[in-house]
């Protein structure tokens, strides 16, 4: 059983990260960035790879071999600004905040539970801080 669980974990982890080298190679071969610090994957409508390096973030659609957006770190709102609706709510609990790509633009994805105990995904535009969209889901009562 332990061997199976180990194999399953390794298989899932490998499938999650197996295209990171392909993304690095694409970005470097196109001379977009030479010094890549990090690659992460966002699963929206299709997988989008977010590449951090040289003071910028690139949002890459590897299937289309296309950079969808590039934004300099200095032009982004900070993570604290993205979490504003959560921090202003006394009964809300922050779960996670990460970069994402929704509605054809780079956004912050802020995940939290709200005052009604709903699980909320809020998408905040990276440049202007405006809400792009929000989904709230009622949680099953236990």
Any overview of this molecule?
The chain has four helices and eight strands, in the order H-H-E-E-E-E-H-H-E-E-E-E. A four-stranded antiparallel β-sheet has the order 1-2-3-4, with helices on one face. The two termini are 29 Å apart. Helix content is 24%, strand content 43%. With 142 residues, it is α+β, with helices and mostly antiparallel strands. The chain has helices at residues 2-17, 20-29, 79-82, 84-87; strands spanning 38-43, 47-53, 56-61, 66-72, 93-102, 105-113, 118-125, 131-138.
Unreliable stretches = none
Q: What Rg, in angstroms, do the CA atoms define?
A: 17 Å
Helix content: 10-25%
The succession of helices and strands, N to C, reads HHEEEEHHEEEE
- What is the end-to-end distance? 29 Å
Concise structural overview:
24% of the residues lie in helices and 43% in strands.
Set down the secondary structure blueprint.
Blueprint: H1 2-17, H2 20-29, E1 38-43, E2 47-53, E3 56-61, E4 66-72, H3 79-82, H4 84-87, E5 93-102, E6 105-113, E7 118-125, E8 131-138
Antiparallel strand pairs: 1-2, 2-3, 3-4, 5-6, 6-7, 7-8
Any key phrases for this structure?
alpha+beta, 4 helices, about 25% helix
């Amino acid at each position: 059983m332990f061997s199976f669980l180990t194999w399953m974990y390794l298989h899932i982890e490998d499938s999650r990260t197996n295209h990171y080298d392909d993304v690095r190679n694409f970005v470097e071969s196109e001379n977009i960035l030479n010094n890549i610090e990090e690659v992460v994957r966002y699963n929206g409508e299709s997988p989008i790879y977010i590449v951090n390096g040289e003071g910028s973030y690139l949002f890459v659609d590897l299937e289309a071999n296309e950079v969808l957006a590039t934004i300099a770190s200095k032009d982004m709102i900070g993570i604290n600004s993205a979490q504003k609706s959560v921090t202003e709510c006394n009964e809300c609990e922050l779960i996670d905040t990460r970069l994402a790509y929704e509605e054809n633009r780079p956004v912050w994805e802020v995940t939290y539970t709200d005052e009604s105990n709903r699980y909320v995904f809020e998408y905040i535009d990276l440049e202007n801080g405006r809400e792009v969209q929000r989904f709230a889901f009622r949680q099953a009562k236990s």
